[in-house]
Amino acid sequence: MKIMITTRGDFVSPRFDSSSEVLIASYYDQQLMEEPRSLLLSNVSAEILCDLALKENVAIVVCGGIEEEHYQFLTWKKIVVIDSVIGPHEAVLELGMKNRLEPGIILPGVTSKEVAS
């Protein structure tokens, strides 16, 4: 199963459509299959991120805020979207692999600086 997390630095990006970085990881039975890949995108666009999720055959997208249009598109394509997530992407990946990630979760280690950016 593949999970894609939109990132900014070490944290989940606050907005899906303004993220130029993603982390993609493949896992099975709560274990990583390979080292997660970090991708820097040349353009910032929700459409590019949606296309990337489809091309990578991602099962789960984790992000901060996401426009309803893009949320509906991804879920229509049978991709699970876990949104409004705030926290370090490593911890978010761990929870995602354990199927313990929920929309709206705020993980420890987040300061007001990460929330405001």
From TrEMBL:
Top-level lineage group: Bacteria
Protein name: Dinitrogenase iron-molybdenum cofactor biosynthesis domain-containing protein
